[in-house]
Amino acid sequence: MSQGRTLTFNIFRYDPQVPDDKPKMVKYHLEEAPGMTVFIALNMLREQQDPSLQFDFVCRAGICGSCAMVINGYPTLACRTLTSKYPKGEITLMPLPGFELIGDLSVNTGKFMRELAERLKLWLHPKSDEVDIHRIEAPMAPEEAARLYELERCVECGVCVSACATKQMRDTFVGAVGMMKIARFELDSRDARSVEDFYHVIGNQDGVFGCMTLLGCQDNCPKDLPHMQQIAYLRRKMATALV
Amino acid sequence: MKLIYTDSLVVGAGLAGLRVAIASKERGLDTLVLSLIPAKRSHSAAAQGGMQASLGNTVKGMGDDEDVHFQDTVKGSDWGCDQEVARMFAHCAPKAVRELANWGVPWTRVTKGPRQVVVNAEKVTIEEAEEAHGLINARDFGGTKKWRTCYTADGTGHSLLYAVDNKAISLDIPVHERVEALALIHDGKRCHGVVARCLITGELRAYVAKSTTIATGGYGRIYEVSTNAIICEGIGQALALETGVATLGNMEAVQFHPTAIVPVGILTTEGCRGDGGLLRDKDGHRFMPDYEPEKKELASRDVVSRRMTEHMRKGKGVDSPYGPHLWLDITLLGRKHVETNLREVKEICENFLGIDPAKDWIPVRPTQHYSMGGIRTDAKGQSPQLKGLFSVGEAACWDMHGFNRLGGNSLAETVVGGMIIGKYVADFCEENTLEIDTALAERFVAQVRDEIDGLVEGQGSESAYELKREMQRIMMDYVGIFRNGPELTKAVEELEALLIRSRNLGLKCKKRHANPELVEALRVKRMLKVALTVACGAEARTESRGAHAREDYPQRNDKEWLNRTLSSWPSSDATRPQLDYEQLDVMKMELPPGYRGYGINNAIAHPDTETREKQIVEILSNLGEDADRHERQHALMPFEVPESLREKNERLHDKPLGNRQQLGEESK
């Protein structure tokens, strides 16, 4: 852990609500402390140097997915990025591309994810709503439960969307986050939807057949989700669905 | 004035708030949720370990039922809880777990046959029953007689929040994100909604509703180091407090979790110890059995946190630049277990400490974790003072936790409380009309607008950041794990001085729209009042109960303090809350005050305790031999839940079985 370094932060600044404001990069200097993360650094900058600086943190523990931004060229979670990771002590911060910009480093991932969920119907469609909650529950294979949890670990941070070249060119593309969630419900034995139902949602250019397999999603996902495998799985499943 | 009206307004989109919103919407009510952030980012997601519900599927949960869960909860609360509420909760918890399975939660399931677990540092083989295969599993947690904590790996809160938010989306419940409630609209008797500010545009809106449910979580961030998300700042409690009418209950009851990592205070789940992890000191010695030979690492949270602090005070802590800490050792669980069942813990250790918990010990220290206190409600979740104001989850003092909450009971409270109170909220909306008094709404909007004008245009010189830091330091130093009179007095005086200074806040950033400094200033003024209710409540309570431990009054004093602290804010120019007390009636308790099972039994008894104990024996003996446990319970303390939740819970061991052995066994 390096101590006593002076870090240089290069931060994207733009307030779309201020008429005539132009996007710009602004330099800030900050004394590094042991164990410093980008979360700690940004808060110190706001408290000590510029109270108007906008960014989003909630859990500050890598759990909630609020704080994704582009750090030295890579989209990732800022709360768990240690400043010591950068030997030159220069850190460039940009907002996540592909989302509506609220201001500076703050983007509206929440709105995007809600719309995606509504569009793809990303919730369990149980085979029956008439479940007796007073009786012993229906059994599920322990392996299936474990497999579902593995795919459910997505925190909707938006990193996969911002790291996706297809998404940058085709605004309506559902991205790895959409496909991961579809794969999760497709695997769930409690879900009533058939392969055909899923085909109607993602069996097209906006879904599995639009992916160029550049796999920025797989490379950058902070939860190490198996995007490559799931996209390939869904693609095979969809390709054979209508045969 | 921008006016938005609805039937059921919910403030806070974590598990508790969403669950109430779903209950309203399912009854056909117009429902609207306000949230500081996207719903799925709420702090509910951070609950790793699981939720307690007495399903009794696993062999180590055999014989569990509502009675055992109720008793654990009451003992855990150090008899400070509302026993009827604890009963309502224990009864409905299995229903909530089963309901959530149908909403998509991939609960970890039981695998039949033998499996190895670690119990008291020894590898033990347990044999799960054939019949239990595929049913919902449970793990061990502190302060519980049975393995009762249902879980999905160590991402239970995440799985629950996603399933419940997905359910809300499927019902088309709107969530107004990035909106902050700043005042309740009320007429002194009834609550009519909130005044809220859009954090993006700065627009002020009056949301008018039949019912207003506050589900904004706890107030952990009044402390310097907390496991809580940074948005858990007690603003919901402040909204209620500032009405001058609604009361807050037991605000001094603040829980410290034994195992947050040092220095950043991020939680490692109780599941680490539940699954067999140990606490060690600077010599590598496992010290908990020296203090609590029976429960050891799995004593109740308040007990473990105090023992750890005591041990560090003896010089047994590990020195670090951030002060002393102890070690959490989960290496004995094996890499496979750590990488599957404790993966969040592994990620946190890698990212924030640079260590591998499958081979390295984790530096931990007790850290502020949970707010047992909150907006005082009756058993139906409604404020006794302000009709139409409801509160649920950590925001509330519904009061199932008393002075100490058991691990696994908070996640459970969000969905169980939400399920129960959601129905009462819907009843209220059906029984009452929407009253839209625009003049009243205008008055409250104007108050908030004036407050913002004062901050943006005024000449104030105090910094919101600085006042917040000072408040957090005071709470850490003087209102922590161990408390005493002189320090608490100092805390109250210093907080009071800060509150007075907060009337002179000034801003450097003068924007009226997205302005983080303005947000901070609006919050810190409110947080200081909340902090004062905690410090004043702690100063006045001259006994030790649960998480409230007074060095100068080490005994639990049922004779004088078997009551609930109620704080209210007398007037806008007041600098301290008014404290009143609500007595707990021993003669109505199913479980009269007794020994909790930790340390020496030095409690000062309540005069009614002995009478009630005799009465209970008498009531039970009059019932006759064939009364079942439900009839016995009903005879001692009847309780109400909504009709659709009244049915008994079915369990594996209720079913007739030829051979008990079929239900699994344990061997070493």
TrEMBL record, chain A:
Protein name, per record: succinate dehydrogenase
GO BP of this protein: respiratory electron transport chain; tricarboxylic acid cycle
Subunit structure: Part of an enzyme complex containing three subunits: a flavoprotein (frdA), an iron-sulfur protein (frdB), and diheme cytochrome b (frdC).
UniProt xrefs under InterPro entries: 2Fe-2S_ferredoxin-like_sf, 2Fe2S_fd_BS, 4Fe4S_Fe-S-bd, Beta-grasp_dom_sf, Helical_ferredxn, SDH/FRD_Iron-Sulfur, Succ_DH/fum_Rdtase_Fe-S, Succ_DH/fum_Rdtase_N
Needed co-factor(s): [3Fe-4S] cluster; [2Fe-2S] cluster; [4Fe-4S] cluster
UniProt keyword annotations, A-Z: 2Fe-2S, 4Fe-4S, Iron, Iron-sulfur, Metal-binding, Oxidoreductase, Ubiquinone
Pfam families according to UniProt: Fer2_3, Fer4_8
GO MF annotations in UniProt: 2 iron, 2 sulfur cluster binding; 4 iron, 4 sulfur cluster binding; electron transfer activity; metal ion binding; succinate dehydrogenase (quinone) activity
Family: Belongs to the succinate dehydrogenase/fumarate reductase iron-sulfur protein family.
From TrEMBL, chain B:
Reaction equation(s) it catalyzes: a quinone + succinate = fumarate + a quinol
An annotated Gene Ontology molecular function: electron transfer activity
EC number: 1.3.5.1
Region (Disordered): 639-668
Key words of the record: Cell inner membrane, Cell membrane, Electron transport, FAD, Flavoprotein, Membrane, Oxidoreductase, Transport
Residue stretches of biased makeup (Basic and acidic residues): 643-668
Subcellular location: Cell inner membrane
Active site: 301
GO cellular component terms attached to this protein's record: plasma membrane
Domain of life: Bacteria
Enzyme class name: oxidoreductase
Biological process annotations from GO: anaerobic respiration; electron transport chain
Domain FAD-dependent oxidoreductase 2 FAD-binding: 7-411
Stretches assigned to the Fumarate reductase/succinate dehydrogenase flavoprotein-like C-terminal domain: 469-598
Alphabetized PROSITE patterns for the sequence: FRD_SDH_FAD_BINDING
InterPro entries in the cross-refs: FAD-dep_OxRdtase_2_FAD-bd (IPR003953), FAD/NAD-bd_sf (IPR036188), FRD_SDH_FAD_BS (IPR003952), Fum_R/Succ_DH_flav-like_C_sf (IPR037099), Fum_Rdtase/Succ_DH_flav-like_C (IPR015939), SdhA/FrdA/AprA (IPR030664), Succ_DH/fumarate_Rdtase_cat_sf (IPR027477), Succ_Dhase_FrdA_Gneg (IPR014006)
Cofactor requirement: FAD
Subunit structure: Part of an enzyme complex containing three subunits: a flavoprotein (frdA), an iron-sulfur protein (frdB), and diheme cytochrome b (frdC).
UniProt record similarity statement: Belongs to the FAD-dependent oxidoreductase 2 family. FRD/SDH subfamily.
Record-linked NCBIfam families: PRK08626.1, sdhA_frdA_Gneg
Name of the protein this chain belongs to: Fumarate reductase flavoprotein subunit
Species this chain originates from: Shewanella insulae
Lineage: Bacteria, Pseudomonadati, Pseudomonadota, Gammaproteobacteria, Alteromonadales
